[in-house]
Design a protein that fits this description.
alpha+beta; Ubiquitin-like (UB roll); five-stranded mixed β-sheet; two-stranded antiparallel sheet; 2 helices; 7 strands; globular
């Protein structure tokens, strides 16, 4: 099933400048694996092993996957994944 993925500016060089791309999968992990086949290198920027990098936030629709099932969070056709880099500063 196809989900849209909103790509932050920092990762757009990996998606040929595209702000929104599409991925297939039944979970966030599967969608990221599918993205990797289209845009090599993107997976390493999002996850380390079976964990999302601590400086990356991923949302399914408006729900942070850290408060759901992490990378095992289920997705369905029409869902939107939003990738946001964590922001720090003062």
């Amino acid at each position: 099933m196809s989900v849209s993925v909103i790509v932050p500016t920092l990762l757009r060089p990996l998606t040929n400048g595209e702000k929104e791309v599409y991925a297939q999968g039944n979970s966030v992990a599967e969608a990221i694996d599918h993205l990797e086949t289209q845009f090599p290198g993107i997976k390493a920027r999002l996850v380390n092993g079976d964990q999302v990098h601590r400086f990356v936030n991923i949302y399914v629709n408006e729900d942070d996957i850290r408060f759901a099932d992490g990378l095992r969070t289920l997705v369905k056709a029409g869902d939107s994944l939003t990738v946001l880099p964590a922001v720090a500063g003062g």
